[in-house]
Amino acid sequence: MIQVPRDDRSVIGQWWWTVDRWSLGAILAIMAFGVMLTLAASPPAAERIGADSFIFAKRQFMFLPLALLVMLGISLASPRHVRRLALVVFCGSIVLLAATFVIGIEIKGARRWISVPGLSSVQPSEFVKPSLAVISAWLLAQSRTERRAPGYLMSTVLVGGVLALLVMQPDLGMSVVVASVWAVQLFVVGLPMWVAGFGAVAGAAGMVGAYFLFSHVRSRFDRFLDPTSGDNYQVNTSLEAFMNGSLFGRGPGEGTVKAQLPDAHTDFVMAVAGEEFGLVVCLMILALFAFVTLRSMSRASKETSLFITLAATGLAVQFGLQAAINMASTIQLIPAKGMTLPFISYGGSSALAMAICVGMLLSLTREHAGLREAV
Q1: Is residue 8 very low, low, confident or very high in pLDDT (cuts 50, 70, 90)?
Q2: Which of 232, 265, 335, 369 satisfies CB 3.0 to 4.6 Å to 346 for a cystine?
Q3: H-helix or E-strand spanning residue 368
Q4: Is residue 3 part of a domain?
Q5: DSSP 8-20
Q6: 9 found inside a domain
Q7: Res 374: pLDDT
Q8: What integer pLDDT is reported at residue 307 of this predicted model?
Q9: In the chain, how many domains are there?
Q10: SS3 375
């Protein structure tokens, strides 16, 4: 057990006594489940493409330690440094996001990835999410504290621009996450009810428009509402995995459905957890995500700095919402959506982007973070 004296005034000492150690422990537990499930789910996926059985596991184990270092390093930062980092990450990821239309690789009809030698591919939108949440929080806080600051307008322009790029890819799932995080921040900052009502109507109109404009969105909604209207192979196979696993699972390595699920190591990794480790372990994973999200929002609500409250709330909602979308689509509570489960699904971009998100969250929810804010 780590022993750090309370009077230790070093950077590490101050960090240890101010960081939310309960949330940190929960995040490390999620990463541990990620290691276990990567080993369980990735070999069949590798064998299907004729590669070494553990090639996906080896790649993921290269990224997870790096993600852990990034997360811990950012959690040491002050709120001002978090804001500056968010600006740098946002500018870089926006450039890459726009570049996907020129040099991006197309997968299943969408251009969301850029091929990077030695790193497979990078999904820039993963890095846009956490950085935009922090920048939007700063703009909204500035507009609230300094009445003449055009924070609301600038925040709207930034979010609108990002949503436009995401819809053009198209990536409707990521668009929903970005819009939802911004909506929560607007709610927390205290916009008039008529603005909230207008936003709700606009969001509903956007979903209806997506249904009629994008054939893959229409297909997924139709198959969700009427499973007999199309191919539901992955969802049906996922549900079969949960039924096979029952309460305590078949045991590590004993699952068979993962050999039939094309995305068992990414979008449907929870199906592997359900079959091999059972409902009990799935509920433990769900509880860990819920704990980090709710505890972070609770700590954010007690902050005296509006910027910290808005930024931490946005990051916490993003973390929890992405996990909820992944798990809900796995058990057909919502239409199928390709979205990774943070720190558990295979994916280097996702792991590093989520490390930035959680590192910022841990930094902003440190005790007396408001006193460390240099405005």
Answers
A1: low
A2: 265
A3: none
A4: no
A5: --SHHHHHHHHS-
A6: no
A7: 47
A8: 93
A9: 1
A10: coil
Residue type present at position 230:
G
Triad 108, 111, 112: Cα angle to 5°: 105
CA distance 66 to 287: 25
Q: What is the pTM of this model?
A: 0.91
DSSP string covering 166-210, please?
HHHTT-HHHHHHHHHHHHHHHHHHT--HHHHHHHHHHHHHHHHHH
Among 146, 147, 129, 124, CA closest to 185: 129
Helices 348-364, 79-103: axis angle to 10 degrees equals 160
Q: What is the pLDDT of residues 248-307, one digit of tens each?
A: 888 887 888 888 877 888 888 899 999 999 999 999 999 999 999 999 999 999 888 999
Matching residue, tokens 């929002």: 297
C-alpha torsion sign, points 99, 103, 108, 109? positive
Q: Quick: pLDDT tens for 23-35.
A: 999 999 999 999 9
Name the pLDDT band for 9 (thresholds 50, 70, 90). low
Whether 353 is covered by a domain: the verdict is yes
Domain that residue 38 falls in: 19-372
Alpha-carbon gap, residue 92 to 364, rounded angstroms: 22
The residue with tokens 């591919």 is: 121
Assigned token pair, 301: 């609500």
pLDDT at 347 over 70: yes
Per the domain annotation, does 11 fall within a domain?
no
Q: Token pair for residue 153?
A: 């307008």
Task: For residues 180 and 314, give the distance between their C-alpha atoms in angstroms, rounded to a whole number.
Answer: 9
Residue 174, both tokens: 């990521």
